[in-house]
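Long-time lurker, first post.

We've been arguing in lab meeting about whether zinc ion would sit comfortably in this protein at all. Half the group thinks yes, half thinks no, and nobody has a model to point at. So I'm putting the question to the forum: if I give you the sequence and the SMILES, can you give me back a predicted structure of the complex? Inputs are below. Any interpretation is welcome too.
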Amino acid sequence: MEKCSLMSLSMYLKTCCIINFRYVKDYTLLGTTFQYSVSGGEFAQIIHTGQCHWVAVSNIGCRKGVVNVYDSLNYGTLTTYTVKQIGTILHEEDPEIILNIKPVQQQNNGTDCGVFAIAFVASLLNGQDPSTASYNNNQLRTHLLWCIKNGHLSPFPQAPDQTRLKRCKGKRVITELFCSCRMPWDKQDGKRRATQMACCDKCEEWFHRSCENIPDRVFKKMSQWKCSKCVHAS
Ligand SMILES: [Zn+2]
Ligand SMILES: [Zn+2]
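Top reply:
Settle the argument with this. Predicted structure of the protein with zinc ion, as tokens:
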């Protein structure tokens, strides 16, 4: 499915299934600029991985700081873009978050990721575990169309022969969080002025230049600097 048509589809779904979608927080488009609102409780969200691919993420049934990733085309890794979007939703105070790649059914073509992401969310919202669900590939799109027409996101039809379906391997990814924005860090952040980080001399935590308004001298002369929390505490 084309990226744009899926975006409008998921937006349409959110609009027409607003009661059913009480867990689905935000329009997917907000993820592109890390503008998801912070979740106070349980959520399910379809996000774009930044690599022409859609996945579903949710903390339904998870303990604090843990998020499950339901990805229909997973090879054991998560994109930085995916991890960062989860970071914005959680805004977790703890030093790290745990992302569980769940062993879900894998798509058998290059185009069904969006429909699978919606199918995973449909399972979650109907009290089912997507890692044990087996979806009927031939009925994915007809069922999605039915959901849109009827304004109700019901579970997707199950496959008649579940033994032939391929699943990805489950994996646990531990991600460290930094700064007052509680975000993961990646190499690219070090190349961008706003996201360069400095260490607070008191709490020894790392903070982004823009988040804490860190003066240039800290980066140029490695001069002493305290984060705003430590300044207020002293
Ligand atoms: Zn920050
Ligand atoms: Zn500090």
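For your lab meeting: Confidence is low (pLDDT under 50) at residues 15-22. The two ends are 55 Å apart (CA to CA). Whichever side wins, do check it experimentally.
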